[in-house]
Amino acid sequence: MSSTDLSSLKNDSVHLSKANGAVLTYGSPTVPSPGEGEILVKNIAVASNPKDWKLSLWGLFEGIEGNDITGTVVSVGSDVTEFREGDKVGSFTRMATGDQYGAYQRYTVTPAATSWKLGNVKYEEAATLPLAVLTAVLGLFDKARLGLEEPSASGKPQGDHSKEIILIWGASSSVGSFALQLAKLAGYSVIAIAGRSGSLAKKLGADVIIDYTGKSDAQLKEDILSAEKSFGEGRQIVAAYDAVTTETTTSVLVETLGSSPALPGGRDKRITTILPSKLEGTHSSSGPSTVHLVRTNVGDSHNGSEEQKKLTSRWIRQLGAWLEEGIFKPNVVKVIPGGLAGVKEGLQLLQEGKVSGEKLVYRIDDTPAQ
Ligand SMILES: NC(=O)c1ccc[n+]([C@@H]2O[C@H](COP(=O)([O-])OP(=O)(O)OC[C@H]3O[C@@H](n4cnc5c(N)ncnc54)[C@H](OP(=O)(O)O)[C@@H]3O)[C@@H](O)[C@H]2O)c1
Q1: 143 and 289: one domain?
Q2: Domain identity same for 75 and 212
Q3: How far is the CA of 5 from the centre of ligand 1 (A)?
Q4: In this structure, which residue's CA is closest to atom 38 in ligand 1?
Q5: Residue 23 domain-assigned?
Q6: Where in this chain does the record put each Enoyl reductase (ER) domain (predicted)?
C-alpha cells in the first residue's frame, strides 16, 4: 500500500523493438500498482544484460525490458510485509513479461521474493548483481545443475572441496565472475578461462587462468588438461560452468572432461551452459568419464520449482548482506552517460562485444529533461 498517489507520478521509459531499437519516450507509461507479492520501486540505478538487445532484435519480446534495478520502494502489494515505503532496495525483475517489470524506466514493479534491502551499498554497484548473480547461483547450487555444496552463511566452505576443481569458462564476464567468487567461497579450486580481463579473474581468486584468445580448440583442450595436472595428484575437474556457451566452448568441454580420468564412484562430470546448445542433455562417455550437459535459466528464479525459487530468494538476500560486509564483490561498474538516454548506446556496446570485465549501469537522474 502507498500513501503516494501513483497517478501523480511521471514516468519516462525506453521501448525496445526490432524495428526501431531503443527509443526513449517521455511521460509514459503510467505508473502501475504492485500486485500480490510485488513492490513498486522508484529506480535510481539500473543495469543492462546481453539478453536485452537479443530479445528485441530477435522479436522475442518488444517493450520495456531490463531486469536489474535499484532504488527506493514507493508502494508494496497488500501481502508484502518485508518491505516498506522508503526502503532502499535492489531487485531482479520478471523477464520479458510485461512493461511494468522493465528496468529501463523511472518506476518498476518487481517481485518481493527477488528483492533485497541495500543497506549502505552504492546503488550503482548493487545494480550489477541481480540477473547475473542469480544465474551463477542457479548454475552452481541448483541440484538439477551443478549441485555444488553452498558456502555457509558466513561465507566459509562447509566441507573440504579443495581437491575438487571447477572450470569456469568466461570467468571475467558478469555471470562468470560471480560464479567464480561463489565457487571460491564454497571452497572449490577454480580454473578460469578469460581473455582481455583475465586479471579480474585473478583478483577474484581464480587459482589458474587460461587465456582463450587466438587459440585453437586443440590448444584449449591441452591448456585445460595441463592446468588440471598443475594442481597435482588426486585433484580433478569435477564440473564446469560454461558462462559463454558457443559450439567451441561446449564441444571442448565435453571432449576434455570426458577424456580425463573418471571421478570416484564413476559419477557424472556436469557442465552447465547458459545458452541453448546442440549438446544440451548430452550424456557423453567417449572417454573414461561420463559428461552431462545441462542448461541454466535464470528465469527459474521466478518461474521454476519451489526449491529453485527458495534458493534464489534466499541467495539474493545473502549476497546483498555479503556486498555490505565486503565478502562479495560487485561487477566493475561502467556508468553510461545520459541515464535512460544512454540505454541505446549501452545495448549497442554489448551487441558489438565491446564490454569486457564491466557491467553497464545507468543513473536514472542523468536522463536529460524533455
Ligand atoms: N541462461 C541464462 O539464464 C542467462 C543469464 C545471464 C546471461 N546469459 C547469457 O550469458 C552470456 C554472458 O552474459 P554476461 O552478462 O555474463 O556477459 P558479459 O559480462 O557482457 O560478457 C562479456 C565477457 O565475456 C567474456 N568472453 C567473451 N567470449 C569469451 C570466450 N570465448 N571465452 C571466455 N570469455 C569470453 C569476455 O571476457 P574477456 O573480455 O576477458 O575476453 C567479457 O568479459 C550472454 O550470452 C547472456 O545472454 C544467460
Answers
A1: yes
A2: no
A3: 41
A4: 195
A5: yes
A6: 21-361
User: Containing domain of residue 113, as a range?
Assistant: 6-128+330-366
Query: Which region among 198-202, 204-208, 288-292, 323-327 has the lowest average model confidence (pLDDT)?
Result: 288-292
159-191 pLDDT per residue, tens: 999 899 999 999 999 999 999 999 999 999 999
Tell whether 93 and 59 lie within a shared domain. yes
Q: What pLDDT is attached to residue 10?
A: 96
Give Cα separations from 349 to 102, 211, 336 (angstroms).
20, 22, 10
Q: Is the CB of 284 under 6 A from ligand 1?
A: no
Shortest-distance atom of ligand 1 to CA 296: 1
Q: Which three cell numbers stand for residue 70?
A: 535499484
Mean pLDDT within 91-107: 98
Q: Which residue has the higher pLDDT, 283 or 261?
A: 261
Q: Which residues of 67-87 are buried (b: 16+ CB within 10 A; e: fewer)?
A: bbbbbebbbbbeebeebeeeb
Q: How much distance in Å is there from the Cα of 165 to the middle of ligand 1?
A: 21
DSSP 306: H
Position 19 pLDDT exceeds 90: yes
Q: Is 355 in the pocket of ligand 1 (CB under 6 A)?
A: yes
Residues 143 and 160 both lie in one domain:
yes
- For residue 275, which atom of ligand 1 is closest to its CA? 1
* Residue 50 CB less than 6 A away from ligand 1: yes
- Residue 35 inside a domain? The answer is yes
Dump strand ranges (E) for 57-199. 68-76, 88-92, 107-111, 115-117, 164-169, 189-194
Tens-place pLDDT, residues 207-227 = 999 999 999 999 999 999 999
**Looking at residue 57, what is its pLDDT?**
93
- For ligand 1, is residue 132 a contact (CB within 6 Å)? yes
Q: Quick one: 261 and 235 in the same domain?
A: yes
CA-nearest residue for atom 23, ligand 1, is 173
Reduce the DSSP state of residue 253 to 3 states and report it: helix
